[in-house]
Amino acid sequence: MPAGAGPRYFTRMSNRFSTLAACCAILLATAACGDAAGPGDDIAGTYDLRNVDGKTLPATILQFGNERVEILAGEIRIENDGRFRSSITRRDWIGSESTTFSQVDEGTWGRTGNRLTLTFPDGDRDAATIEGNTLRVESAGFIFVFVRTS
Questions:
Q1: What does pTM read for this prediction?
Q2: Other CB atoms closer than 10 Å to residue 65's CB: what's the count?
Q3: Spatial separation of the C-alpha atoms in residues 144 and 138, rounded to whole Å
């Protein structure tokens, strides 16, 4: 977090995290088309979130004083028709009180080689790469790593 950042920064980042879930979904969906894993490889399927910025789940991604945001779980489903659906479950803490909720987003994806572009209905885009069964999504300054489960 930048020096001098206060609660307003935390609120903006918390709101951006909701958008991040959507972005992740798009990136995974992008992986379903083309040959990101290799020429002709089918990347459609379900990918489960394993870590965020190298931190295993639950992962604290933002913290300011007694406020923090944790990522508990996530999933991206990539379809062969160029659509994707993502879900991220997070917990927001203020002191000892927490609220847990899931953000679900849908969008479309495109692929060039092992690079994916996830596009959300509002036009926002995230970038991702796929290698074998691992999907790495870069969104809101974080790296989300998903592994194909089906």
A1: 0.73
A2: 10
A3: 6
